Amino acid sequence: MPRWKVFLSQYLRWSSTVTQAFALSIITFCVIFPLCCHRLLYSYYFIKSMYLDSMSEVVLRESLDRGQEALHFWQSSSTTATSRFNNFTQHPELLVTVVTARRKEARDYHYLLQVMLQLSNIVGSCGEQKCAEVLVCDVESGPQENQDAKVLESHFRVVRRSPQEQQSIQERINTFEKEKRDYVFCLRRGWELVKPKNIVVLEDDALPRNDFFIVIKDLLSRRFALHTLYIKLYHPERLQRYWNPEPYRILEWVGLGLVGATALLLSFPYWNPCSFSFTLSATHLLFFTLYFMTVAELLGRHYLLEVRRISPQLYAVSPATECCTPAMLFPGNASLRVAEYLDSSFCYKGHAKDIVLYQMARTVPGQRSHSVEPNLISHIGAYSSVRANPSRPKLL
User: Where are the transmembrane segments (predicted)?
Assistant: First the structure.
């Protein structure tokens, strides 16, 4: 028999671990995953051309419906039922400041009203006392009013710049610098009003999840919170993959592969329905480590993170990422330091306030910043208040 036939017969028979590894990989990545993951938005197998448009329309419709429900709720609610939000206490444990501006394209979606309705529903989840005081910071500076903020005036404390302050910011500045100045104004005004122990700043399209306050309370009880400048409560799902520049995720990725590989190989002596010949050897451990790492990445890290929602203690805290500030927690008086630093920086395209904060935490001695995963808010703002918008926004 020719040598090549001997080689093939040796390695292609089912009892060969090479054949088993090849077959397992083909079945997993070329059959099972394409069938099961082609509609998962953050999976590599997601078929954009088939599902992105329809899924985007569904999400827009759901947001529109929630917005109309929220508008009806706040217009029909009596001020007596919501008077507890207008009565501020000094030095609360937590102040939630919602920064808002008028959104021309998204006026029917009422993002702000959706967020405030959710906050009003979950602010009582901490027991007898409110989880937080809630403040609306209206930074609209155009000739037209922010109608959603007007609707909320009888239910929440709404703060705005004085006419003199409005005039002082009428100079021609770019969008990113104005956004930063609005953020600094809201940070300082919230602190001046009630001197809170901790501050959360939400943008008006950051819809809190039901466990929002429970997880924040747990985060503030952890030791790291005493020494951090800020904790990011949201990072875009499309940027949560393992294959990215964040070093800690590489360690998490390899660790997940090792744990999965070890557990599987240890289980084979007790449960092996496919009659695999794998053992706890270095070669087989390496193969299954890579196998589980590939499974996790192609499936989507976002979906694995969702398992952590079982308990507040399972939420992961890691070094802060660069992008985005829809939801930020500032422990202690960190908000004042952040306001001072932002004030001393000028923002422009490519150097927005999130980049400035990230650089501050990395370059100023003694400053640290963190992110929590999974996200504590859903980013519902398909239409931006500060950037150009497409006619029909997409999820990706």
Answer: 20-42, 250-271, 277-299
